[in-house]
Every structure is written in structure tokens, then in C-alpha cells.
Amino acid sequence: MAGCFGLVLGLALGPMAGLARAEDGFFDSNGVKIYYVTEGEGEPLVLIHGWMADSSMWGRDQRGNTKLDASVGFKLIAFDCRGHGKSDKPHDQKQYGTEMAADVVRLLDHLHIDKAHLVGYSS
């Protein structure tokens, strides 16, 4: 499984040498503002970060510009899970758990995407 993850991640992120021109924004997920960034064209690939991280783990330079390499034919979508990065940080613990999974579905709905590949990482 780890080898498959590395292959998919390597294909999606490439050498991460050049800066990509990404688009970013926020959307409302059941009252919680969620930050996301997209880059490229092709099959949607959602990148989900782990605990204590944010979307920048997928590649940012010192100025905050994304280094995602979308030249591989994917529409790359990274977002800050609720409670992380630029997304809202609700204090009510009921705003986490299954709501975090629903955020992915709501993000895809916001972007008018019916289905996508998912890549997640947690340490």
C-alpha cells in the first residue's frame, strides 16, 4: 500500500521544482469556512493532509506559492481540513469527526465535481 501511495503521490506532485499557478478560495461547509487550492486540468485528485498539517504540506515555497505540478494530467485539489491552516477552527467537538468527511463531499460539490481520486497522508 505504501508503494502505491508513493507512486500516485510522485506522479501527482512530480519533482516539485517549478511553481504552479494555482487558484485558491474558500467555501462554506455547513457553516464552517474551508480553504482550498486547485491546480491543473484532468481527472480530479483530492489531496488530504494529516493531523497538525495543512494543504501546504503538498508543496509551498517560502512565499506561500504552491509547487503542485499539474502537468501530469490531474486537476489537483488540496484543502485545509477544518481546524487546520486557513480553515475555520470550530470549538465544538461535534463539528469534527464525520463532518470532516462531509467536507470532502461538499468541496467536490462546490467545485461541481461528481467523482475524484483521493490521496491522504497522516503520520
Q: Overview of this structure, please?
A:
The protein starts with a helix and ends with a strand. The protein has a five-stranded mixed sheet. It has a single domain, classed as Rossmann fold (3-Layer(aba) Sandwich), CATH 3.40.50.1820. Strand 1 (23-29) and strand 2 (32-39) form a beta hairpin. The model is unreliable at 1-20 (pLDDT under 50). The chain has two helices and five strands; from the N terminus they run αββββαβ. It is an alpha/beta fold and 123 residues long.
Strand order in the largest sheet: 1-2-4-3-5
Radius of gyration: 14 Å
The CATH architecture would be 3-Layer(aba) Sandwich
CATH class: Alpha Beta
Topology:
Layout: H1 2-13, E1 23-29, E2 32-39, E3 43-48, E4 74-79, H2 98-110, E5 117-120
Parallel strand pairs: 3-4, 3-5
Antiparallel strand pairs: 1-2, 2-4
Task: Name the features.
globular; five-stranded mixed sheet; alpha/beta; Rossmann fold; single chain; 123 residues; 2 helices
